[in-house]
Records
---
Amino acid sequence: MKRRNIYRIFAPLCLLLTTACTQEGQEECVPCKEVRSVDVRLAKTPVSGLATPLYIFRRSAGTQDEYRYDRSFESVADGQMLKLPLAEMKASDYRFLMIAQPEGTPWLGMQTAAGTAFAAGDGWNDLRLACATGEAASDGYCGYIDMGGEELLQQGRIQLTLTRVAGQVVFDIFRMAGSLSQPQSVVSADVESVIDRVSKIVIEYDNPTTVLRFGADGVLTADGYASEPFTQTIEPEAVDFKVSLPQADKGLQVYRTDLRGSLRIEGAFLLPSDSQLQIRMTFDYYDTTPICGNDHTGDHVASCFTPKQLQLFLPASTAGAGLPVAADCFTVNRAGLRCDRIIDVPVNSSIEAEFGWLTN
């Protein structure tokens, strides 16, 4: 998976008042009293290649009624002109919602709590954002803002803060001295990285979030989970059973350049989770003892060794809760080895693990 920074986007929308219908000395344009409007301009699009639909919710001005979905503009581009009737503005409070994601390949959809299509007249509290499998994408942003119609007329500007919807899970694996707070380089000159001799890494994500709702504070909150896990498979390239890093096209990076052999695995992008996520990592590797009896010339090949597996559970199976995932953040899982390679763990060592947050 290609590495991308996680960041926030500020997309100001400009509202310009139009008065083109009437001019001094002309007869009054009666229809203009009813349909006079404002022009809405999107100052800039957040990322190129994204569709940027704008959804409009309304309620009666000055009330505490629930906002209801009124209409939408398919994709608001820079400089596009949109109109809001003056009479409607004076009588309404607005909630403007934007969901920006790749044009032609959207992965996040709007639906009701019951799973039906979200339609005009549906209430804000019934709005859900859904992703079928829970496997999200890096490019997907949303944000909303509340403004009264009179406020729109006075200020002439909407400013939306669009934040990446998904978070990414990453796994840092390194040799440690006494604890996770004491990372160190691999010791043996014959070891290239902690995943030497590993032929495949399978990461299973269980209970990923598939449905989000907006909480009372506006934060996206988990509201549904996948019934089946999804998997991510990585096959490192090795030379003489040694895995050199980085291999960016496979999502394998160096954790820290000052720690020789250390590894960062770029995991999946996921919707925010309230500590429900369970992860199982399976490492397929070749044992170090040849079973071929040296009955051939040349170096040993893969068939000379017994294939084995090692599994790592995050969090530990004894933990009371799963892993949290936050929007616009990395969930960093650190695994410390008391040896050079992860394949040595079942023999003479153990793994110490924890998770933390990293924003970028």
---
Amino acid sequence: MIALILAVGLVAMGCVKAERVRGWRTFSNPSAPEISDSVFVLARVVLFGTAAVCVFSGFRLLAVSADAEWSDDELSSVVSQATSELHGTSRFGDTFGDDSGFDQDIAKMIEEEVIENGGGGAPQSGVDAGAAAGNKPSDADYTVQAAGADGAFCVHVVRTRSKDGDYEPPGVAGGPGSVTVPSHDFSVTSREGAC
């Protein structure tokens, strides 16, 4: 915005007539040498050129700030896409099976999927999936919000243990390992509004 205001000031300075500037100069310093017309032409070229650069820079900065924030329509569309992408997927869980970090893991999974589905027009940051109080590893809610958007969406995640998808890495000697990495299937839905 400052660049656009500066551009207006530069254009105003460039529009002042040479006779008026000569009059001000004579009034403030009568012994000053006369300024030629070519100096005024050069000064106008510099002022108008600088004003054009300020206008261009100002609009670029406005475009960058618009790209840094989410709109309600962008968030609505992207949460819907992310929900569709996550629904029916499977992921490996904690090797030790204690599920202590499930809330952070699922919140991060949702945030990454929303950003990934945002594409080139949406910002690549500013998404938050806040876990609801009382979430369980098998049934959890997350309020998805984004910087710049007024709306919020509730993403409901049902996580089911899938023993068919478990992974058993080989042991040190190449035989069967002693650790099983559990697999979980996800059922994901979303609705408008906070959880």
---
Amino acid sequence: MPKGRRRAVVGYAALTLLGVTATAAAVSMSIASLDLSGNAVEVRFAECHQESVKGGTKTVCSGPVQHTTHARTASVTYKGHVGETVRAAPTLWGSYEPVKTDFVSWGIWILVPVLPLFGTAGAGALTVREFRRARQPAAADEAS
């Protein structure tokens, strides 16, 4: 396999793996935002504060989870106020995401995983193409 073809195969394979990761993260966020798993809890905010992030600030509110047998606190990135109760669903990485219920949010969160999925499919197709191209000269040399 020529060195340039090997680099192309490795590069496209790496892009495919990154695409799979991005698609999995997008699907996970969609499931949490729409509460498709059914794990949403109600959080009554006890405190809200601003946090500096790159490019601006975000509001983070936290408070006790309502209607549970054991006490736990949930932190939600949400522009709320003290005393407000919000439904939030846990994400895979331990944070909580406010549940979206309006039609536009449903449409957006259903379509969010589609873009990285298309990119992953494209990178996978390029990986297969380059791998086949790299194998063709070797097969032609063996036949002669």
